[in-house]
Amino acid sequence: MSTRAIVLKSIITCPFCQFQQTETMPLDSCQYFYECEKCRETLKPLKGDCCVFCSYGTVACPPIQQNKPCC
Ligand SMILES: [Zn+2]
User: Fold this and answer.
1) How far does the centroid of ligand 1 lie from the alpha carbon of residue 23, in Å?
2) How many A from CA of 49 to the centre of ligand 1?
């Protein structure tokens, strides 16, 4: 049995301008939209992903890390 700490910090890489920004993920919810601080484009999850962190972040969102169904 192993316990895994949930990672709440994720580095989002903007697909438009490659700008990287560290964000803190909400524990029990998914973030569907994310506005890039640099180019102001609105990021949306890729097909099959539940949130912007799963698509563009370095770490999958907390529900996925806990093997929970995502919102
Ligand atoms: Zn950008």
Assistant:
1) 14
2) 19
Contact between residue 41 and residue 52 where contact means Cβ atoms under 8 Å apart: no
Predicted TM-score (pTM) of the model is 0.85
CA gap 25, 48 in Å, rounded: 19
Q: Which residues fall within 8 angstroms of residue 47, CB to CB, at 6 or more apart?
A: none
Q: What would the two tokens of residue 1 be?
A: 């049995």
Close Cβ partners of 1 (under 8 Å, ≥ 6 residues apart): none
Q: How far apart are CA 35 and CA 42, in angstroms?
A: 4
The pLDDT tens digits for 1-27 are 556 789 999 999 999 999 999 999 998
H helix intervals, the chain: 52-56, 62-65
